[in-house]
């Protein structure tokens, strides 16, 4: 079974560096509570890596909400699945590709991740 079109350990050709993030996350339209079935692991201006119990296919569209400590509003991120791999047990790691670069969002995420660490 093909699990990835671009293996996550393949040569990295990213224009923007990834940085580790750890903020409460949930799927946009989900009734589930934050961090019950999805976790944001890292991000860059063009994408993110999430860990989830849901099995997505390459090309699927995903929208998540991230709860940040600096405001009450939630940050909405959406993209398409560029790769996926089985992690452990019922968990999957999924790479998201954002259709547009939002430097304001990523700058905010980056600054808050530095404060948290």
CATH superfamily descriptor = predicted glycosyltransferase like domains
Query: What is the name of the CATH class?
Result: Mainly Beta
Based on the coordinates given, report the CATH architecture. Beta Barrel
Give a short account of the largest sheet: 7 strands, antiparallel
- Average residue-wise pLDDT: 86
Gyration radius, rounded: 14 Å
User: Count of helical segments?
Assistant: 1
| CATH topology tier name | Thrombin, subunit H
Strand order, biggest sheet?
Answer: 1-3-4-7-6-5-2
The sequence of SSEs as H and E is EEEEEEEH
Strand content: 35-45%
The total strand number stands at 7
Straight-line N-to-C gap: 38 Å
The proportion of residues forming helix, as a percent range, comes to 10-25%
Number of domains: 1
Note down, in words, how this protein is organized:
By secondary structure, the chain is mainly β. It has a single domain, classed as Thrombin, subunit H (Beta Barrel). 12% of the residues lie in helices and 38% in strands. The protein has one helix spanning 103-116, and strands at 19-20, 25-27, 38-44, 47-52, 61-67, 74-86, 92-97. The chain has a 7-stranded antiparallel beta sheet, covered by helices on one side. A hairpin with a 2-residue loop joins strand 3 and strand 4. Mean pLDDT is 86; it is low at 1-5.
